[in-house]
Amino acid sequence: MTKSPLDNETFSWPVRVYWEDTDAGGIVFYANYLKFFERSRTEWLRAKGIGQQALKEASGGMFVVSDAQVRFIQSARLDDELLVTTSLLAAGRASMTIHQQALRTSAAGPQLLCDATIRAGWVKADSLKAARIPQNILDTLT
Amino acid sequence: MTKSPLDNETFSWPVRVYWEDTDAGGIVFYANYLKFFERSRTEWLRAKGIGQQALKEASGGMFVVSDAQVRFIQSARLDDELLVTTSLLAAGRASMTIHQQALRTSAAGPQLLCDATIRAGWVKADSLKAARIPQNILDTLT
Amino acid sequence: MTKSPLDNETFSWPVRVYWEDTDAGGIVFYANYLKFFERSRTEWLRAKGIGQQALKEASGGMFVVSDAQVRFIQSARLDDELLVTTSLLAAGRASMTIHQQALRTSAAGPQLLCDATIRAGWVKADSLKAARIPQNILDTLT
Amino acid sequence: MTKSPLDNETFSWPVRVYWEDTDAGGIVFYANYLKFFERSRTEWLRAKGIGQQALKEASGGMFVVSDAQVRFIQSARLDDELLVTTSLLAAGRASMTIHQQALRTSAAGPQLLCDATIRAGWVKADSLKAARIPQNILDTLT
Question: Least CB-CB distance to D64: which of C25, C53, C67?
Answer without folding.
Answer: C25
